[in-house]
Every structure is written in C-alpha cells, then in structure tokens.
Amino acid sequence: MKVLVLHGPNLNLLGQREPERYGTTTLADIDDRLTSRASERGASVECRQSNHEGELIDLIQAARGAFDGLLINPAAYTHTSVGIRDALLAAGVPAVEVHLTNVYAREPFRHTSYLADVVVGRVMGFGASSYLLGLDGLLDLLHTAPGAP
Ligand code: CA2
Question: For ligand 1, is residue 17 a contact (CB within 6 Å)?
Fold first, then answer.
C-alpha cells in the first residue's frame, strides 16, 4: 500500500514556532515516524508539504492511480478550500483528515471543515500522534476493502 501524506500551509514551522500550541515535534520528525510505521506495516509513505493551495490540488490530482490512500492535514485550508474538496472528490482516493489540535476546542471558524464529509475519517487533538493514528486507520481500511491484498 502506498500512502501520500500532505501537510498544508505553515506546517513547515512545526517545532520552531508556537510550541505551546503545536508542540516541539518537527515536520521531519512526523514524516520519519510515519515512514517507520508504514514500513512496519509493509506499506510506504511519500510526504509533501506546501503553503500553496494550487500545489496541494495538483498533488491530490496526481495521486489518482499512483497512491492507494491519502493522509492530509490541510491546515488553514480545511476551513476555506472548496478547491481541495473538489480535488479529493475527483481523485477518488480514500483520504483521512488529520489535525494536531482539537479544532472544536478552538475558534468557531475552525469548526467548519470543507472536507469532513468527503474523507473516510478524521483524527484530531493528539498532536503528532494524530498522524500515526490516522495512518493506522487508513491502512486498516485499505486492507479490509473489497479486493485488497
Ligand atoms: O490542528 C491542526 O493540525 C490545524 O490543521 C493546524 C492549522 C490550523 O489552521 C487548523 O485550524 C488546525 C495551522 C497550522 C499552523 O502550523 C504552525 C506550526 C507552527 C507554528 C505556527 C503555525
């Protein structure tokens, strides 16, 4: 199983700014943990970060036929992006939405996700562990899908 991991805007700053909110783990640490976990499960991940909505959309479009699943923290675009929603629908690749923080414990504008009803599941509030939990859930789902190895 091949999983594309996408990190949205500003997540490149993880571990360098606002550690009280987002923790001290860097994005490279998260990617390393995901790579190890995937390999333990006989899977692989490719991890990409972008601050640009169009680039994220290009990556989602290109995932069709190239990846079995998608793990995405769309960051601020969660709450604004019809474009990313449409790309996920068009790609038709099962996606899990992850967040470091519990968005429902934050400002009301973060309570809306444009992706919530087009992803197979959502994990939030566990810091870097949200990504690992999301990857496990996604791989479990892919392995139990009809016709899966
Ligand atoms: O909790 C999450 O993972 C979020 O997706 C993070 C986004 C936020 O807009 C979402 O509402 C929830 C913000 C990512 C910003 O990342 C930073 C990391 C370090 C320092 C500053 C920003």
Answer: yes
Ligand 1 centre and the CA of 146: distance in Å?
A: 35
Please state the pTM of the whole predicted model.
0.97
Question: What's the CA angle centered on 132, arms 115 and 138, to 5 degrees?
Answer: 55
| Residues 48-99 pLDDT 10s | 999 999 999 999 999 999 999 999 999 999 999 999 999 999 999 999 999 9
**Cβ neighbours, 10 Å, residue 130:** 23
Between CA 79 and CA 42 the distance in angstroms is 33
The Cα–Cα gap between 127 and 140 comes to 21
Specify the length of the chain in residues. Answer: 149
